[in-house]
Amino acid sequence: MRRKPAITAALAAALCLSACATGPGNEPADQSTPTASIAQDSPGSDEGHDHGVEEHYGVPDVTWDPAAETAVKDTASTVMGLFARPDVPEAAWYSQLAPYLAPEYAEDAKYIDPARVPILSVTDGPAITREAGNPMTATATFSTDAGNWQILLHRAGQQQPWLVTAITPHDPA
């Protein structure tokens, strides 16, 4: 019969789970959700069990506030000023722009020839837009003598810098 091994396996799994679900002295384990730090097990705790351990999954606490808006505008303005310089030698152009770029975009930007950037002057901006509920990503739109351009910026945390993930021409629909 195949039912006996299946029942035996189910009972073994249930026993293992019940052993982890109770704390020392067979009291129910703490039912709280994981928090931000990992605490050490108390002395004498069972080896291999996570009783008393609080886990943190590293979810950043990020908000959109006036300081975030000021910082993203400042970064976007600086980047657009550095980007829109077609007369600057390529090595200097890139080295001055690179500190503001996310690593993935920095790799792509190495291949941009500043002489081919058609912008000579920025006429307005930045106008900042973002998705509701997402304080980590913003789009800065600039009006230039070569049409509208957008800079996509992202930050990894509240105190982290805004980094550019894309600079593209923008044709408003």
pLDDT averaged over residues: 78
Distance between the termini: 68 Å
E-strand count: 4
Helix content: 25-40%
Strand content: 15-25%
Q: What kind of sheet is the major sheet?
A: 4 strands, antiparallel
Widest sheet: strand ordering: 1-2-3-4
Question: Which radius of gyration do the C-alpha atoms yield?
Answer: 27 Å
The helix count comes to 4
Which term fits the overall shape? globular
N-to-C SSE series?
HHHHEEEE
Q: Stretches where pLDDT falls below 50 for ≥5 residues?
A: 1-46
Structural class: alpha+beta
Describe this structure in words.
- The chain contains four helices and four strands; from the N terminus they run ααααββββ.
- The chain has helices at 3-21, 66-83, 90-97, 103-109; strands spanning 122-129, 137-144, 147-154, 163-170.
- Strands 1-2-3-4 form a four-stranded antiparallel beta sheet.
- β3 and β4 form a beta hairpin.
- The radius of gyration is 27 Å and the shape is globular.
- The termini are far apart.
- The model is unreliable at 1-46 (pLDDT under 50).
